[in-house]
Amino acid sequence: MSQAKPSSPVPLTTARGTFRVTIDGDADAPALILSNSLGTPLEMWDPQVDAFSEHHRLIRYDTRGHGDSPVTPGPYSFADLGQDVLAVLDALDIARAAFCGISMGGHTGLWLGIHAGSRFNAIAVCNSAAKIGTPQGWNERATMVREGGQASMQALAASSPGRWFSADFVHSQPVAVQRAQAWIAGIAPQGYAACCEALATSDLREDLGRITLPTLLLAGASDPVTTVGDAQTMQMGIAGAELAVVSASHLSNLEAPKAFNQAVLRFLSTSRLSA
Q1: What angle, rounded to 10 degrees, do the helices at 174-185 and 150-164 form?
Q2: Does the N-terminal peptide bond of residue 41 adopt cis geometry, omega within 30 degrees of 0?
Q3: Alpha-carbon distance values, 225 to 41, 193, 239 (Å)
Q4: Whole-number Å distance between alpha carbons of 176 and 115
Q5: Are strands 57-61 and 17-24 parallel, antiparallel or unpaired?
Q6: Among 50, 67, 66, 60, which residue's Cα sits nearest to residue 22?
Q7: CB of 146 within 8 A of CB of 189?
Q8: Residue 114: what pLDDT?
Q9: Which residues are CB-contacts of 136 (< 8 A; sequence separation ≥ 6)?
Q10: Residue 193: burial class (beta carbons within 10 Å; 0-12, 13-18, 19+)
Q11: Cα(first)–Cα(last) distance of the chain, in Å?
């Protein structure tokens, strides 16, 4: 199977708006769609492109409210964010795909596994939880960002390394950390706030048993946001779910890309073999 050169983002018109996407890999390979975390664009997946597109038709997209995807008035819900994924797949004439999401994107994957399982072959839910944070915390952050505008995004960028990365990574990889800070600083406040409001209202804990797809739950050993314990709790609720722990904090795909890529690709490979 030939490896395509990494592509540049393009606008993709869907039934739910025009999303910024990239597509890499062989058009005939099994499709895999990646969903970004809160405060990052599709470029957060750059360390995965070469490895994943070797085996898959790899689709990355900016989540609603982020990058050059629609920044519509909020609040959003995970039904909105999940339906956006389905609209992207529909616009590309993809009937079924594998899904990998991190943090907010992982929570989107849980919603899809519950409500749209027939469209997916497998889901990898990374550095996420069935309920992330508290409604009060998310609503306070949404209010702060709506009122403070881009200056509030700059403040979030300044504080993000401690939430996203281990202290060792922050010290040893300053360029990567600064790039991630630039991502969140550039997010539209309205879109960021609307996604915070989606996180405030979403609690999928009681619905995990409805997921029948092959599921990988990947956690970062030092993640303070969505812990290994959160992944273990989800594993108890999802029949047959696999658990992988990598030596990293919250954005494990950036901090430990080799271990992350190996865990996800091994899971997707065994899921195809058992399908």
Answers
A1: 140
A2: no
A3: 19, 18, 24
A4: 36
A5: antiparallel
A6: 60
A7: yes
A8: 98
A9: none
A10: buried
A11: 21
Rounded to whole angstroms, the Cα distance separating 39 from 65 reads 9
**Are the C-beta atoms of residues 97 and 112 closer than 8 Å to each other?**
no
Residue whose tokens read 């881009």 = 150
pTM: 0.96
Distance CA 173, CA 255 (A): 9
Beta strands in the chain (DSSP E): 10-14, 17-24, 31-35, 57-61, 97-102, 120-126, 215-220, 242-246
The two tokens of residue 149 are 């505008």
Angle between helical axes of 78-91 and 189-201 (0-180°, round to 10): 110
Side chain identity at residue 195, one-letter code: C
Q: How many Å apart are CA 13 and CA 61, to the nearest integer?
A: 12
Is 62 within 8 Å of 19 (Cβ atoms)? yes
Taken as a whole, the chain contains a residue count of 275
Structure-token match 């994957």, residue found: 109
Query: What span, in angstroms and rounded, lies between the C-alpha atoms of 154 and 2?
Result: 41
Per-residue pLDDT of the chain (275 residues), as tens digits, is: 344 456 899 999 999 999 999 999 999 999 999 999 999 999 999 999 999 999 999 999 999 999 999 999 899 999 999 999 999 999 999 999 999 999 999 999 999 999 999 999 999 999 999 999 999 999 999 999 999 999 999 999 999 999 999 999 999 999 999 999 999 999 999 999 999 999 999 999 999 999 999 999 999 999 999 999 999 999 999 999 999 999 999 999 999 999 999 999 999 999 865 44
**Cβ atoms of 62 and 195 closer than 8 Å:** no
Query: Can you tell me the distance from the alpha carbon of 107 to that of 37, in angstroms, rounded to the nearest whole number?
Result: 9
